[in-house]
Fold this protein.
Amino acid sequence: MTNIQSVHTLVESLEVGDDALAEISLILEMRRNFSISPYKDKCMKRRIAIRMRSCRCLDAATYCNLLRQSEQELDLLKKALTIHVSQFFRNPSMFEKLQTVVLPSLFKKILADCEKTNLRFWSLGCAGGEEAYSLGIILREFFAQQLLTTPTEIHASDIDEDILLAAALAEYNEDRLKDLPDSIRERYFISNGPRMRLSSQIREMVSFHQQNIMDVESFVPCQLVLCRNTLIYFTRPDQEKIIHGIAHILPTGGILVLGKSETLVGETRKLFTTVCPVERIYRRV
Ligand SMILES: C[S@@+](CC[C@H](N)C(=O)[O-])C[C@H]1O[C@@H](n2cnc3c(N)ncnc32)[C@H](O)[C@@H]1O
């Protein structure tokens, strides 16, 4: 084996032990006010190892030293720990269910309610805004009449300030648009060099704000919550805490949508009935 090969093999097999994780956790908490304790250790260790590899740190102690000295690496690590993968109409069959089953009944219910309230949707862990904007496109395409009579708001939140700035800009690489029908792409996107920019009529439908999903006391009432592919990174007790927080702000009949690999946990199962098990759509009882 050449020297280069042996260094490469060593880097490939980097491991982050419990002590290193505890130290990195402390550094992030003190310097970025960011707690990794609600997240699954295994997931955090895997992500830290990826950063160590990128920085060519051969052991966790060297990486901790780097973290103490480099503001830039602290930001890069925080970004790596909060995974931002998303795309427009991710899991298209879920959006179809929203369009054909869930949204018609929500609009009907709000019209039937004597009390006049706005219809409020919330994308929690919104990444670059793809999920919230997909909902906006469906509303504009299929519920234009209802929007005239029912004031409707789409809120979207994430912990990462930079991703929220990108979300508000709404400019995307092609890969984020791969599940979009051509007609939608033509109607709502214009090319800007190699990127695609979402039209202002959809951008203006969504308001973004920074929020930690663990701050359940700050959740605001709404009728539909999309919380997909975010819970999966959290420990089970913290997943339960978050779902309890969501249940608390949903009215009876309100809707929660989880990601394909996520489900209701513990006592929260008693708070919802299942609308569609495949698409992980639940209704508040
Ligand atoms: C994988 S993305 C999911 C995006 C979108 N919901 C979807 O399904 O396509 C997970 C998002 O959760 C956000 N996130 C991670 N930890 C968070 C926290 N503590 N509070 C709020 N958002 C968080 C990340 O920044 C990231 O943008």
User: Anything to note?
Assistant: The chain has two domains: 3-81, 92-284. Residues 92-112 form the longest helix (21 residues). The CA atoms of residues 16 and 45 lie 6 Å apart. The chain has twelve helices and ten strands.
